[in-house]
Structure prediction request, 342 residues.
Amino acid sequence: MNHIFNHAKILVTGGTGSWGHELVRQLLEKYPDLTEVRIYSRGEHRQVEMKQEFHNNPKLRFIIGDIRDKNILNFAMKDIDIVFHLAALKHVPVCEDNTWEAVLTNIYGTQNVVETAIANHVKRVVDVSTDKAVEPFNHYGITKAAGEKLMINANYNYSYNHHNETSFICVRGGNVIGTNGSVIPLFRKQLRESNEITVTNMDMTRYLMSTREAIGLIFTAVERAIGGELFVMNMPATSLKTIANVMIKLFGNAKSKIRVIGERPGEKKHEVLVSKNESPFSYVVSKRYYVILPQIHNEKLVKAYEHLVKFDKVEFTSENAGQLSENDIEALLKKEVWLWEK
Ligand SMILES: NC(=O)c1ccc[n+]([C@@H]2O[C@H](COP(=O)([O-])OP(=O)(O)OC[C@H]3O[C@@H](n4cnc5c(N)ncnc54)[C@H](OP(=O)(O)O)[C@@H]3O)[C@@H](O)[C@H]2O)c1
Prediction:
C-alpha cells in the first residue's frame, strides 16, 4: 500500500516543542521512507539542541521563522506534502495577559498556515487543538477555537467547494503528561524546592494523555481523514487531588503539604472534549477515537461516516470520562523516565 508518508516532505510548525519533538521522533522511527521533515520555529537555541539530539539526521531541516510571517512560512512550505501545525502560545495565563499576542500567533498565524498551504498545493494539514477550545472560558481556548474554525472552514471553502487539493483536519488533545509548563513537572519542582504543592482546586478534573497517545491521535487522524473532520481521543481523566496525592507518594515525604490557592482566571473546573452542540454530529471511529463532523453539510463526510455508530453521550467531559485512580496515575508516572531524573 502506498502509505501517506512514503517519500513525503513534512513540515512541523512548532517542531521544537513538547508535541513537535515527539512527533518528529516518531515520524523518523516509524516511516523511514519519508523524504524530509522541516521544523519551523523561532528560537535558534532549541533548534540547535534538537539537531544535535537527532545526530544531525540528514532528513531534518530546521527553519527559523514566525508563523505570523507569511513570507518565511511560504518559503518553508515549498514542496511540502503534509503540514502538522503545532506552533502556538499555549499557556492560559500568558494568553490572558497578552491577549493580542495570542490572537496574532494562534489565529493570524493559523490563517497564514492555511493560506500558504493552499498556495503551495500541500495535500494535508493537521491542526493540533485542545480541549480548552471547546466552549472556551479563557482567551487561549478562544484563539484555539478560532484556529479550529479557520481550518475546518478552509476545508469547506477551498477543498470541498473548489476541489482544491489541500484538505484540513483537526485533532483535540487533553493535557499531555509532562509537557512544558504542565502540572506534573510543576508539582515535581515544587516538591523538590519547597516540599509544598500548590493546587488550584482539589476537585478540578483534567483529561490526561501520554505523549505517545498524543502522537497516536495525530497519526490516526492524518491516515484516516478525508478532510474537514475533527478527531478526539476517548481519554480518561483524573482530579488534581489524585495527581497531587500520587506526586507526594512518589516524590514527597510525611512533611509534604498541599496548599489550595483557588482557580486562576480563565480556568474551568472540568474540561470538555465533545460539547452538547457537537455531540449530534459525532461518531465512534473505534473504542479509542471519536470523530466530530462539521455542522455545514458535507456530503462526502456524511457518506464516509454515516455507517458508524453515533456518539451516544450528551457531552464528553473530564467529569464524566473514565477516571484514573491513584494506582493508575502511579503506574503512568513510573513510565515517564524524565520525571525520575534529578
Ligand atoms: N501540551 C499540551 O498538553 C497540549 C494539549 C492540547 C493541545 N496542545 C497544543 O499542541 C501544540 C503544541 O503544544 P506543546 O505543548 O508542544 O507546546 P510547546 O512545548 O510550548 O511548543 C510550542 C512550539 O511552537 C513554537 N512557536 C511558538 N510560537 C511560535 C510562532 N509564533 N512561530 C513559530 N513557532 C512558534 C515554539 O518554538 P519557539 O518558541 O522557539 O518559536 C515551540 O516549538 C499547541 O498548539 C497546543 O495548543 C498542547
